[in-house]
Write a structure and sequence with these properties.
By secondary structure, the chain is mainly beta. It has nine helices and 28 strands.
Length: about 550
C-alpha cells in the first residue's frame, strides 16, 4: 500500500474518538486546555470566561461583540458564523497561519499569551474550519482526519498568488479557504456572503486568483428576501444546494482579470447577498488538497455606468446520453417576457467530459437556425478553430465587439453533442462524472421592442407562463400550442434532479393548464419540451 495512504488510514483511525465529539466540543476542549489561564471566572480577561459550561461559552462567542474598540469599529464578532475574517477570536489565535487574518496593534496581542501553551496549526485550522462551516453548537462539520493528516504529513498546499487588496475607496477583497479535499475526490461548495455595503455600488472589474485545481467559480446573487432560507457557512450540493439562479458572473480557471467594457458595470444594491460557488477537483491519488481563492472587487459610485451588465444562463436538465453511444440535444434560449433587445458581450458554454461539440445560432422568427454565433471547436480565447471541443474549463468564451444584438422573443438555439464511452447511461449532474448542458451569456439591455412587433412575432412554437411566481402553495402552468404536438413537462431542482413529470403525451392545438405542487422551498426549473425542442422557465417556491 502507498505509504501516504497508509498514514492517512492510521490518522483516520486515531481520530475516531475525536469524531465522536461534536466539532464545537473539540474546540471547547482546546479552550479549556490552552486558554483558561487568562479567560476564567477569576481573571475574566476581555470579559470572556472560557471555563464556563459549553453552552454558556458558545453564547458568549457566537455573534457576540468583543470588547476591543478596534474590533467593534470593524463590525467583528468574537465568532461570526461563516466568516473567518470577521471573527475576532480567530484573528487573535491565528498567529500567522492565514496571512490575511492577523491582528493589528490596536486589536491587542496574540492569544494564548505566555505562559499558556500556543495553539498548534491543526488547532487553529480546526477553529477556522468550524467558523467557515457556520460555527454550529452541535454536530460534526469538520473532517478532523483530513486536516490532522495535512498538518502532520503535508499535502498539496494550493495557495494561489495572493492579490494586493484594493484600497477601501476602490473596492474590497474576498479570501475564501482553506477548503480540504481527500485524494481522488471533488467537491462543489456554496457559501453565503453578505457584502455589508454602506451604499449601493457598481462593479466595473473583478480580479481573480484561484487554485489550479479549480473547475469553476461562480458568483450568484440571492433574490431579494431569499437568503434567509439558507444557513450561514460552507455547504455542499447535498446540503441546501444552490441559493439562486441569478448569476452576477462566472469564472473558469483561466480567468484572472474580468474587466467590463467601458461605460458598463454590475449594479450591486446595498443589501445584496452573494452565494459563492466553488467547484474543486483533487486528482491526486495520494495527497490531500488544501485550496483557496482570492478575488478583488473594484467598485464605483452608483450612476457612473451608462448601462448595467446582466447575466442569463440556460441549462438543459433533460439530457440522457446512452451507454457507448453518441447523442445531441438542441434547446431554445428565449424569453417572451423581455421588453428590450439583448446586447450580448460574452457567450459561453459548459459540458463535462463526454462533450464533443457545442454550437449556438441566432434563432429565426420561424424557429429555424439562423446565423451561427458560436463554434465550440474554437480555443478558449476564441481566436482560431482548433478542430475540437475542449470540454469543461477550456471551452471557448466568445466576446463580441460590438455587442451581439438578439431579439429575446426569437432568442438563440444551442446544440450540445456528446459521446458516452462508458457502459452506463449518463445524466445531468453536478460532478465531473455526470454531464451538463449549459449555455449562458452576459448582456446589456438594448433597444426597446416595439409592442406591435411583440404581438405579431411568430417565433415561438408555444408561449407559456407560471403563475403565481414566486408561489407558496400551488402554481398553474399554462401554455398555448399552435398545433398538435408531443409535449413533455418536467420540474427539476437546482441539482438537475427530476422533482416531477407533469405531463408526457401528445396534445392538440389550444390552451392547456396544469397544476404544480412542490413541497420544499427553493429554486426550480420547469422544462417544457415540444416536438423535441426544450423551453426552460425558472420558478421560486417560498415557505407557506
Amino acid at each position: 500500500m502507498n505509504p501516504k495512504k497508509l498514514l492517512f488510514l492510521v490518522v483516520c483511525f486515531s481520530t475516531q474518538m475525536m469524531l465522536a465529539q461534536s466539532t464545537y466540543q473539540q474546540i471547547y476542549s482546546i479552550f479549556q486546555a490552552k486558554c483558561s489561564g487568562c479567560h476564567n471566572s477569576s481573571t475574566n480577561s476581555g470579559l470572556l470566561n472560557l471555563t464556563a459550561a459549553p453552552s454558556a461559552v458558545y453564547a458568549a462567542l457566537v455573534n457576540h461583540a468583543p470588547v476591543n474598540p478596534a474590533a467593534v469599529s470593524k463590525g467583528f464578532k468574537r465568532i461570526t458564523p461563516g466568516y473567518p475574517h470577521r471573527s475576532f477570536l480567530l484573528r487573535k489565535v491565528n498567529n500567522g497561519l492565514d496571512p490575511d487574518n492577523n491582528i493589528t496593534n490596536a486589536e491587542g496581542g496574540i492569544m494564548p499569551s505566555p505562559p499558556n501553551p500556543s495553539l498548534t496549526n491543526y488547532e487553529i485550522e480546526l477553529i477556522r474550519q468550524w467558523v467557515l462551516h457556520g460555527a454550529p453548537e452541535t454536530g460534526t462539520v469538520v473532517d478532523t482526519a483530513l486536516i490532522n493528516t495535512f498538518y502532520t504529513t503535508g499535502g498539496i498546499n494550493s495557495v494561489p498568488v495572493p492579490l494586493t487588496p484594493p484600497s477601501p475607496s476602490a473596492g474590497f477583497q474576498v479570501h475564501l479557504g482553506k477548503i480540504f479535499l481527500a485524494p481522488s475526490t471533488e467537491t462543489e461548495i456554496f457559501i453565503k456572503y453578505d457584502l455589508k455595503l454602506a451604499d449601493t455600488l457598481e462593479i466595473n472589474r473583478i480580479e481573480l486568483s484561484q487554485s489550479p485545481q479549480s473547475h469553476h467559480f461562480v458568483i450568484y446573487k440571492y433574490f431579494e428576501g431569499h437568503a434567509v432560507n439558507f444557513p450561514e457557512g460552507l455547504r455542499d450540493t447535498t446540503m441546501n444546494g444552490h441559493g439562486s439562479t441569478n448569476i452576477l458572473t462566472a469564472f473558469s480557471p483561466q480567468t484572472t482579470d474580468h474587466v467590463l467594457p467601458t461605460g458598463t458595470a454590475y449594479l450591486v444594491p446595498q443589501n445584496e447577498i452573494w452565494d459563492l460557488n466553488y467547484h474543486l477537483v483533487n486528482s491526486s491519488p495520494d495527497s490531500i488538497l488544501a485550496a483557496e481563492i482570492y478575488f478583488n472587487v473594484y467598485t464605483q459610485p452608483k450612476g457612473t455606468a451608462q448601462k448595467y451588465m446582466y447575466s442569463k444562463f440556460f441549462p438543459n436538465f433533460s439530457i440522457v446520453i446512452p451507454a457507448n453511444d453518441s447523442a445531441s440535444f438542441t434547446s431554445i434560449a428565449a424569453d417572451t417576457a423581455e421588453t428590450n433587445m439583448w446586447d450580448i458581450w460574452i457567450l459561453y458554454t459548459h459540458t463535462h467530459r463526454f462533450g464533443v461539440d457545442y454550437d449556438v445560432w441566432k434563432r429565426n422568427p420561424d424557429g429555424s437556425e439562423g446565423q451561427q454565433v458560436y463554434e465550440g471547436f474554437y480555443n478558449f480565447e476564441y481566436t482560431f478553430d482548433q478542430g475540437y471541443y475542449a470540454w469543461g474549463v477550456e471551452a471557448p468564451q466568445r466576446h463580441f465587439d460590438p455587442f451581439l444584438e438578439i431579439n429575446p422573443k426569437d432568442g438563440l438555439l444551442h446544440k450540445a453533442s456528446y459521446y458516452n464511452y462508458t457502459n452506463a447511461p449518463v445524466y445531468f449532474g453536478m460532478t465531473s462524472q455526470d454531464e451538463m448542458m449549459v449555455m449562458g451569456f452576459q448582456y446589456t439591455e438594448g433597444a426597446s421592442l416595439d409592442p406591435s412587433a411583440i404581438k405579431e412575432n411568430k417565433a415561438d412554437e408555444i408561449s407559456f407562463k407560471v403563475y403565481p411566481n414566486p408561489f407558496s402553495g400551488e402554481a398553474k402552468v399554462s401554455y398555448a400550442l399552435k398545433g398538435t404536438a408531443d409535449v413533455k413537462i418536467e420540474v427539476y431542482n437546482m441539482l438537475g434532479g427530476i422533482v416531477e413529470t407533469l405531463f408526457n403525451a401528445q396534445q392538440t392545438k389550444g390552451i392547456h393548464t396544469h397544476t404544480l405542487r412542490i413541497e420544499l422551498p427553493g429554486i426550480y426549473f420547469l422544462n417544457v419540451t415540444v416536438n423535441g425542442k426544450t423551453y426552460s422557465h425558472k420558478m421560486i417556491k417560498t415557505n407557506e
